[in-house]
Design brief:
Blueprint lengths: L1 E5 L10 E6 L12 E6 L2 E7 L14 H9 L5 E10 L9 E3 L2 E4 L27 H13 L5 E2 L2 E4 L8 H10 L3 E3 L2 H10 L4 E10 L12 H25 L3
The structure holds hypoxanthine.
Hypoxanthine (HPA) binds next to strand 5, strand 10 and strand 11.
């Protein structure tokens, strides 16, 4: 079964034939909402809306540990995380879709690990390549089959939110090598690795980052949702092709 985490612009997966919803409790509390089970092209899917079904949970308040734990309990073949980002690199313009290959964490005060039990031996994870490279490849192949243009690679900078960044912060992130900025990539990506999940992200550029492109003085927030809605049509098309190569 393939697991899909939907972000802003994808609180529901319209191509999913829903069979049931299930509330799952975890040792870390409740996930963002019930898990939605169903099929795409006859393949089993479980879907979770990261911000809740009504898009009410801000990025810093998402219970990432419960979300990933709940999905992990179902032993999914892969986890595809859909995210929205602000574009910093010149080619990451609004509406573009990108599969990042690296991440830098700027978040704070979030529950970011499962390995905090003082009674247990210290545990480290390898995080050199933060995303599952096989899952990234499957995403890129599916995009090709779906005839959707996708940018292969980029550094995702995970910021705390919920406010957007200042122009100076974006300059600093760019100096760090960040290509796109979002608020939910961490700790989600690291927790997925701690659980051994085959996890990759597909990101939609919702806006030019602060101070970039046409957003020299402000980011027009209303336009973000229009861009996201349009670009998610392409993402859904990719996901519909991806289920055929997921191997279920
Ligand atoms: N910054 C942070 N997160 C975002 C942005 C942004 O500009 N756009 C969409 N998510």
């Amino acid at each position: 079964m393939l697991a899909i985490i939907g972000g802003s612009g994808m609180t529901q997966l319209s191509c999913l034939e829903i069979s049931r919803r299930e509330v799952i409790r975890t040792p870390y509390g409740e996930p963002s909402g019930p898990l939605t089970f169903g099929k795409i092209n006859h393949h089993d899917i479980v879907f979770l809306a990261r911000h809740g079904l009504g898009h009410t949970i801000p990025p810093h308040a998402v219970n990432y540990r419960a979300n990933l734990w709940a999905l992990h309990s179902l032993k999914p073949t892969r986890v595809i995380a859909v995210a929205s980002v602000g574009g910093i690199r010149a080619d990451l313009t609004p509406g573009r879709v990108v599969v990042p290959d690296q991440i830098i964490d700027y978040t704070y005060s979030r529950k970011f690990t499962y390995f905090e039990d003082k009674e247990k031996p210290v545990t480290h994870i390898d995080f050199t390549l933060p995303y599952c490279m096989v899952t990234r490849g499957i995403l890129l192949d599916a995009a090709k089959q779906a005839n959707e243009e996708v940018i292969d690679g980029g550094v995702y900078g995970a910021t705390q939110g919920p406010r957007l960044e200042t122009a100076a912060e974006i300059n600093r992130l760019e100096g760090d090598g960040v290509d796109m900025v979002g608020m939910t990539g961490m700790p989600e990506t690291a927790l997925a690795r701690e659980l051994g999940l085959h996890y990759a992200t597909i990101a939609v550029v919702a806006n030019y980052a602060a101070g970039r492109g046409t957003n020299v003085y402000a980011i027009p927030l209303k336009e973000i949702y229009v861009v996201l809605e349009q670009a998610m049509v392409g993402v859904r098309n990719i996901l519909q092709h991806l289920v055929n190569c997921n191997g279920d």
